[in-house]
Amino acid sequence: DRLKHLDERMVQTIEAEIMERMDPVRWEDIAGLAHAKATIQELVVWPMLRPDIFRGVRAPAQGLLLFGPPGTGKTLLAKGVASQTGATFFSISSSSLTSKWVGDGEKLVRTLFALARVRQPAVVFIDEVDSLLSQRTDGEAEATRRIKTEFLVQFDGCGSASTDRILIIGATNRPQDIDEAARRRFRKRLYVPLPDRAARRALLDRLLDQMRHNLSDADLEVLVNATEGYGGADVDGLVREASLGPLRDVEDIQSVRADDVRPIEAHDFTDALMQVRASVTAADLDPYLQFDAAFGS
């Protein structure tokens, strides 16, 4: 009944962005990021699970901004929030809220927030939020400006009722490009850094646990050192590349039995390290550290 006043076509468009069959994500599934996980648990998960306790000055922030280099687990953290709270997970990008028809963009934004209220507790995850809420300029298209304005208005109103359990999570690799008004609405701003030694080791262990391998503890420590500066996605790509090494030794891939494929060995990673390099340089990290120092939580 609460959706009767909305365009049915737009409701269907937004409902298509709900991830119904999302695999559960536990905090232990996310390697490292202890500070980010602890902060999110305290400021987001607990309030959504116990809204009766988190009222008044304890009321949670309605907006959480996750920023950092690519492939560090920002999306996984957002999915972890939805899994831990049993929330409906809306996965939104700027293309989800744009239309070739004038005025439809604002209607899609209103539909999104209306659906989030109906399906709460809800997590609205906006990947690459800087592309949707970039700094407003004199030369930008009027339609784009109206979508931003409508989003900010709806963002302000999503926590107006004390019973609302809606969280807006934005993820970005370019936090400095976000509009100042949007940045203020994301009251919590968390830097998601590259994985440290312990996190890289945990990630390697988890990925290799699915595969047959002959790597010793010493071999794994060598890999941990060799992957300094790698993001989580880089480490994942490295293991995937190394896992293909044994298959390249197979003469007839169609007839070989799976049990006859040799285990992954250290030299497979030596070869893989020549192919898969860190996607972020030390200089690339400077803007994130500067933003964290100025605006981070």
Model description:
Belongs to the AAA ATPase family. InterPro entries: AAA+_ATPase, AAA_lid_3, ATPase_AAA_core, ATPase_AAA_CS, MT-severing_AAA_ATPase, P-loop_NTPase, Spast_Vps4_C. One of its GO terms (molecular function) is ATP hydrolysis activity. The structure is a single chain. The protein is of the alpha/beta class. It folds into two domains: 8-194, Rossmann fold; 197-277, Orthogonal Bundle (Helicase, Ruva Protein, domain 3), CATH 1.10.8.60. The protein contains 13 helices and five strands. The protein has a five-stranded parallel β-sheet with strand order 2-3-4-1-5, sandwiched between helices. α4 links the parallel β2 and β3 (122-127). α1 packs across α4 (104-118) and α2 (34-49) packs parallel to α3 (74-85). It is elongated.
Largest sheet: 5 strands, parallel
- Gyration radius, rounded: 22 Å
Order of helices and strands: HHEHEHEHHEHEHHHHHH
Beta-strand level of the residues, as a percent range? Answer: 5-15%
> Can you tell me the residue ranges where pLDDT is under 50 for at least 5 consecutive residues?
none
Strand order of the largest sheet: 2-3-4-1-5
Count of helix runs: 13
Distance between the termini: 39 Å
